Structure of Arylsulfatase family member H L homeolog precursor:
Amino acid sequence: MALIPAVFFLLWASTASQAHGNKPNFVLLMADDLGIGEVGCYGNNTLRTPNIDRLAREGVKLTHHIAASSLCTPSRAAFLTGRYPIRSGMTGHDGGYLVLMWSAVSGGLPTNETTFAKILQEQGYTTGIIGKWHLGVNCRSRDDFCHHPLNHGFDYYYGLLYTLINDCQASMPSEIHVAFRAQLLFYAQLFAVTLLTAMVTKRMGFLTVSWKVLVIFASVGIIYFAYWYVAYEFLRYWNCFLMRDFEITEQPMDLETTAGKMVNEAKSFIRRNKEGPFLLFVSFLQIHSPHFTTEKFRGKSKHGLYGDNIEEMDWMIGEIIGAIDEEGLVNNTLTYFTSDHGAYLEGLHPAGRGFNGIYRGGKGIGGLEGAIRVPGIFRWPGVFPANTIIDEPTNLMDIYATVIKLGGGKLPKDRIIDGKDLMPLLQGVDSVSSHDFMFHYCTDQLHSVRWYQKSNQTVWKVHYMSPKFSPEGAGACYGTKFCSCSGNGIILHNPPLLYNLSGDPSEKNPFPHDVGPYREVVQEIEQAVANHKISLHPVPQQLYRFNNFWHPRLQPCCGTFPLCWCHKE
Ligand SMILES: *[C@@H]1O[C@H](CO)[C@@H](O)[C@H](O)[C@H]1NC(C)=O
Ligand SMILES: *[C@@H]1O[C@H](CO)[C@@H](O)[C@H](O)[C@H]1NC(C)=O
Ligand SMILES: *[C@@H]1O[C@H](CO)[C@@H](O)[C@H](O)[C@H]1NC(C)=O
Ligand SMILES: *[C@@H]1O[C@H](CO)[C@@H](O)[C@H](O)[C@H]1NC(C)=O
Ligand SMILES: *[C@@H]1O[C@H](CO)[C@@H](O)[C@H](O)[C@H]1NC(C)=O
């Protein structure tokens, strides 16, 4: 008889703990462009990252953690939706762009994509994002905010809707469309000379076209060049502004105070919501160029401004985990740290070149490990073991399934979710990852595929194409901004190259074509690619030219367009 009340008590207790209280908080920390070779606990002993290292000491460090893309916009889209960016139309493409290029573009994370924040919001979570977004703003007007974080499941936003770029720092040379701008200048001069010549010859009676035609020619040209002049001349105003929820607070932003403001925002979000449950996504502006670093950290690292910038970010992380500790939330908070993709090897200038440790390739080179293998640290004392290293293949998209499950939500059933629940692996219940295949795109081109052959405990990777590196074999394209993903800039591998990543993580020695398992492995992967391709459906492309150039009518503006500036705080 005593058994029945006991069973009821257990049932009651388990539903009660699900209904309130015991839902964990989530603090997700994402660096921008940080390489796996640039973190202390991943082997860098010349940079100081004590706070990231502390998270690893108190939790689980993943050494085979893979980003879904090697560039910001697609990688972040995948992170938030748990789906390969090709499923949401958030990949770049040939003849288009690689990422969103302005804040005033109509492309962005489609409104019918469901972020983990949206699902957690429905589960009673207060959700916030602080920092970089880079997933679009508006669709049709200056303030419809269709792609804004507040329309994608976040209750609170503070930060930079676009991304840090050199143009945000007045003293730096511009980095946006540099080649195109040089062309524009040339054509503007050509246009001016042609127009002047036409007017003079007309005046002298040698030209037979009417004045009306000349006026139309002049007007079209002037409007065209004036449009680009305004777009580029005031780029800092158009792209580098801070916003709180739907309100611009600083246009252009003051870089010297941004890091401090972001830290304060993150701490105050944690304090405001300590009764929980909450989800806070801190998306750092570091360590994207221009590597602007506040005075306190300038000149302090062994790696110039680049290293200073990393150490500044580590300090910010220390402040944020400090707030979790101070509020007594540590045992009820899953804290995660990662980077959106590998470090940028080409750099805009040599001092800004990143480092991906033993892995070949970097930002933008979708198929190589250096582009996509990133730090991944999970801390949740009492739930995850401390000081533990897991070398099983995992993906940034897995966060989606993991936090939704922990928050009591359900994965959307009407679409494919590529991420997998990491809890069994992180808690040590499973020792083997649930991933079999991962597909590595460079824009919309499938460059390589990873296969975890569990029966042989081997992670294979096949390369179908790779960029023509310069110099050859460098794993980077020095002297250009990015390697190509298709066309003349790539080499097709037919038959494909195969690597045993388990034994050759630097992808140096292709497995011989005529030896042992080559055929079997390549065939198995071929089949997985075919199945993957069947699962893809055409969707509207968000980064195509027309969706991805400056639309003045979509320009977020503090003031009356085009006079956009303010400093409210
Ligand atoms: C640490 O990271 C810096 C910055 O990328 C890099 O230059 C340096 O080589 C790395 N040091 C080690 C020991 O890995
Ligand atoms: C967190 O849990 C650990 C044991 O897992 C305990 O030692 C520690 O005191 C707890 N901290 C707080 C703030 O509750
Ligand atoms: C791949 O490399 C690992 C580590 O060197 C080795 O244990 C494994 O046997 C290799 N797999 C094959 C199929 O050669
Ligand atoms: C995997 O291992 C089995 C034996 O354990 C072997 O027969 C098979 O050829 C291996 N496959 C590959 C692709 O290495
Ligand atoms: C979102 O809408 C687009 C355009 O109608 C459609 O192609 C796509 O499949 C939709 N995505 C989802 C996840 O429903």
Remarks:
- The mean pLDDT is 94.
- The two ends are 66 Å apart (CA to CA).
